[in-house]
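Residues determine shape. Take a concrete instance:
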Amino acid sequence: MIRLVTADRLRRLREDADQARTDARTVQEQANAAWSQHIRELYAVTDRAERAEAATSEVGSILARAMEQLSATEQELLLKAIETRRLRTELEAGPGEGSTLTVLLHHGEPHTIYASREDAHADTATHGMPVDHVWRRCDERPAAAFTWRCEAFIYDAASRGFRRAQMPAPRPVEGAA
């Protein structure tokens, strides 16, 4: 079969082909625009995911530090509770026969009372005494003659109080027979 194509028909076919090319370009441009939009959205979502991951990591490290601090604080609180319990028990028991206190004297005046001589010696280091200072027994000079002096006191149950651990030697009264 032979088909005859007229000029009018040929013109319409060309117009249809041109219209089809124009429609194809339009559809291609719309597809490209949609593809570009999807790519931008993908980059935006990826960026948000990366920022969320970084924030999660940062929050995780902050939480880990907070948990470490909480653990250390709980440990410290537990130790303080144990020490408080021990001190309450000691306080309720009261001083026992022979228990001692050390009074730190500064130029003869009472400065601080300590549970042990070592605590008193350590405290004088905070007041300018050398840490390696060698402490010796004091002689009979008055306490005011010393910059720092430690005096030990022993609990005496009979008197319900403390007395000096080392009493000064009695001096003879002049003129007494």
About this structure: Helices lie at 7-93, 117-125. Residues 7-94 form one domain.
